[in-house]
Structure formats: C-alpha cells, structure tokens
Specification:
alpha+beta; two-stranded parallel ribbon; 6 strands
C-alpha cells in the first residue's frame, strides 16, 4: 500500500513539473523585434512629440524675426468733438468754413514706416532666434537618443530575462533527470531516503527559480510595452539574437568625435551663441535709432474727409541719459554668456567622463562573456562527469546536485553577461553618440 502511494505521489509530482515546464515554454503571441520596437517607440513617444513641437515653436519665432526688417503700414481713423466754443478744427481742408463753423472733425491717417538704423538690434534678435532654433533641433536629437537608449536597454533586458527562463527550464529538466534516476534507485532499494528528499528539494527550488524568472520576464515585457506605447493589453513577446557584440574602439577616437558631434554639446554651443546675440541686443541701446516715415493725413468736418496732407519724415532719437540700466544690462548679459561657456566646458568634461566609464564597462562586459563561456564549459564537464560516476554507483548525490546547481548558475550568468554586454554597448553608443548600430 505504501509502495502504491509512493508511486502515485511520484507520478503526480512528475505531472505537475511537466505541466509547469510545458506552460513555461508557451510564448505569448505577437513577438516583436528590436527594429519594430524602435519604430513603434519613436513614432509614439510623448517626449519626442513634445520636443518636435518645441522645434516648431522656435522655427516660427525665427521666421517672425524678419518682421523688423520689413516696412510697416498703419492706418488710423478718429472722430473729434470739441466741447469748448468753436475753434479751428483743420489745417488741411480747402473749405475755410471747416475751420470756423464746426466742432466736429474726422481724421484719417495712413503711414508707411521703415527703420533705417537701430544699432544692430534687429540683426541680434534674428541671429539669436536662429541659434535658439538650432539649439532646439539638437535637443530633439538628444531626446531621440535617450528614447532609443531606453528602448534598447529595456529590450535587451527582456531578451536576457527570456533566455534566463529557458536556462532555468533546462536546469529543471536536469534536476528532473536526477530525481528520476534517484527515484528509480530508491524503488530498487539502492538509494537512500535522504538522497531522494535532497533531489526533491532541489527540484522544488528549481521550480521556484523558474517561477521567479517568469515573473521577472513579465515585468521586463511591461517595461518594453510602456516604452513603445502599446496600449493594448494583448500578450506579446520579444525575439531576436542575443549575441556578444564585436564592436571595438579607442577612447581618444570616440572622445574626439563626440566632442564635435554630440547633440548636448552642440546645443550648449548654440546657447552660448544665443546669449551672445542677446548681449549684442542690449548693446544696441547705446546707439541712436533712425526711422523713416511716409505719411498721409486727411481731416475736415465730413465723415470722408477731403483735406489732405502728405509728409516724409526722418526721425532720429538717442537717449542721452536714461539711468544706469543700459550699462548694467550689458554686464548682466555678458555674465549670462560667461555662465553658458562654463556650462559648455562642464558638458564637455562630463561627456569625456561618461565615454571613459562606458568604454570600461563595455570592455569589462566583453571579458565577462569570455569568462562565463569558459565557466559554462567547465561546469558542464563537471556535471557530466559526476552524473556518469553516480550512474556507476561511485559518486555522491550532494556533489551531483551541487554540480547541477553550479551549471545552472553558470548558464544564467552567461546569459546575464550577454545581456549586460548589449546594454553596455547601448550606453556607450549614447555616451559617445555612435550613430552606427550594432
């Protein structure tokens, strides 16, 4: 009776493990590749769309900065009712009674004006608007690069988590094989009860590890789903190779190129240019302003006045004294320029540091892949040897179970090193703004 119960328990355990293993191998529908994830993420990213609107805003500001260079046309009309005793209303009318017999006057004025000289204020504003536009375009590149990095990083993490699920599935199968072997020997009276219990514990731990791996994989998929803006809750999967990258580069070449083309640095250079133009704009307050005006004025007592006067006017203005604002505004504007230059230097410094650290991390991740590859080879050889010895009745179950556990850990570490190498390369691409994709 006890033997029947033990056999039944054995079959139930095998069925449960087999069912869990089979369900673990099921893959949700809708697998996407990295290229598809990037295409979807860039097309739907809120921050990319937001920055695109900022680029449009700065472009419109630049276009509108042409207005001060163009002539201006103004029209005006007014009605005047004199409350005091009748006085001359118009000096333009040919009807003398209009100047003596009426308290009502209608005026129409048309003016065409154009600024001849303003000390460079218009040019400074336009150049500043152009620098602001260029800066927003560089910020757009930076934002896009951040989105690409986040998508790639999340994708490779998810791909690594998927492979770890597979490795833990293999570990469970190996543990199941050991358990079946010990179970058979136990039924034959060769193995001890303690050996069977130890195998059962290892099998349960393998099941728990697989369950954790699956949950981590599901979490990583949710991160990918969020980054690529997938509103549907339908299950999906990631697919693609997870291989060791072959990219190699030297720090000096990466750093020299990045200091020239990286969007963050160019954006800060454009900010320096914009603030320098703002300084030139404040400096224009020290120069006179010259305006030309062509004006026609009509005024008399009729609603459509006939009295007409045409004039061409040249206006010259220069503030001899208006306080100390002009001087200190220039000083403040130059301080802003100097602060932006310091920020540019700091951006260059942090860029160089990020590249150096990212390159070291990448090189370390490549070395880790090589070491874990060798570790997997040795762990596999060790497990096969101990398993063979145990089949011959010479080995120890503890050593066999430990070798299987070491092999499972080596496989997981190998997959993790592959994922880290891809993630570290992705970060190096971001830090050094490497446009080529690997």
């Amino acid at each position: 009776m006890a033997s029947i119960k033990s056999g039944l328990l054995h079959r139930v355990l095998i069925f449960a493990v087999g069912f869990f293993s089979f369900s673990g191998l099921l893959e949700p529908a809708g697998a996407i590749t990295l290229e598809e994830a990037i295409k979807s993420g860039l097309g739907e990213s809120y921050v990319v769309k937001e920055q695109a609107e900022f680029v449009k805003t700065s472009r419109f500001s630049y276009i509108s900065s042409i207005d001060p260079f163009l002539p201006r046309f103004d029209i005006g009309a007014s009605y005047i009712r004199t409350i005091s005793p009748r006085t001359p209303i118009s000096t333009y009318t040919s009807n003398l009674t209009d100047t003596t017999d009426s308290r009502d006057a209608y005026t129409f004025t048309g003016t065409i004006s154009w600024r001849v000289f303003d000390g460079g204020e218009r040019f400074a504003k336009r150049r500043g608007a152009f620098s602001a536009w260029e800066r927003q375009k560089e910020i757009f590149k930076s934002v896009r690069e951040d989105v690409l990095f986040n998508i790639r990083n999340a994708f490779y993490v998810a791909l690594g988590a998927k492979m770890i699920v597979g490795k833990r599935q293999e570990a469970m199968q190996a543990t199941q094989k050991i358990y079946n072997l010990i179970r058979g020997r136990y039924d034959e009276g060769v193995a001890k009860k303690s050996e069977l219990l130890q195998a059962e514990v290892r099998l349960l731990n393998a099941k728990i590890d697989l369950q954790k791996a699956r949950k981590e994989y599901e979490k990583s998929l949710e991160t990918v789903r969020s980054l690529i803006i997938v509103e549907s809750k339908d299950p999906f999967d990631v697919e693609g190779p997870l291989t060791v990258p072959s990219y190699r580069a030297e720090y000096k070449a990466l750093n020299d190129k990045a200091l020239v083309i990286k969007p963050e640095i160019i954006a800060q250079q454009k900010e320096v240019d914009r603030l320098m133009n703002a300084y030139d704009q404040t400096k224009s307050a020290w120069y006179p302003k010259i305006d030309s005006v062509l004006q026609q004025t009509r005024q008399d007592t009729r609603f459509f006045p006939d009295g007409r006067s045409d004039a061409f006017i040249i206006n010259f203005s220069f503030p001899l004294f208006d306080g100390v604002g002009r001087y200190y505004n220039m000083q403040g504007a130059m301080s802003n320029v100097n602060a932006a230059r310091q920020r540019l230097a700091e951006t260059r410094r942090t860029t160089s540091l990020d590249i150096a650290r990212a390159l070291k991390d990448y090189e370390l991740s490549i070395d880790d892949v090589s070491l874990y590859t060798e570790l997997v080879r040795e762990a596999t050889s060790n497990f096969n040897q101990l398993y063979g010895e145990y089949l011959e009745g010479k080995g120890d179950i503890l050593n066999l179970l430990q070798s299987e556990k070491d092999l499972a850990a080596a496989n997981e570490n190998y997959v993790g090193s592959l994922a880290r190498s891809r993630v570290s390369l992705t970060y190096l691409q971001k830090a050094a703004y490497i446009e080529d994709r690997f």
